[in-house]
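Before a colleague's protein record goes any further, I have to sign it off. My question to you is simply how this chain folds and whether the tokens agree. I do not need a full report, just your reasoning and any doubts. This is what I was given:
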Amino acid sequence: MYSSRSFFVALFLPFYFFTICSATLHGKLSNAISGRVHPKDILPRRHTSFGKRFDNERFTWYEPGRNACGSVDSPSDWVVAMDSQHYDGGSHCYQMITLSYGGKTVQAKVTDECPGCASGALDLSEALFSHFAPTSQGVIYGEWNF
């Protein structure tokens, strides 16, 4: 019939696999039920956060034309020239950014570099600046982010 060895294996193996599976699933199931997330599960999501926000930055305006990204902007385009540090040799060319001033929030495209702008400051196309304030104001301070 059964030897003591095969009886032991027949009894022990199912118990062993049940124990291993239960221990493995217990952590995952209890975390799923309680809503807890292990830090190692969060790590990959850290890189999908929103870009840096720039508050109280200087916005000036310019007349668009040929730009540093290699195209030509028209006077009606909502485009910005970014300070040299953030322009970073064109790494943000044609990227959309969000700008806010006076309760208005819009999106505009990075197409130019503003070598004279301080870090974080933006030069807005005349049409874009006019959306926020009259060009006669010359300078406004707003927020923007990537």
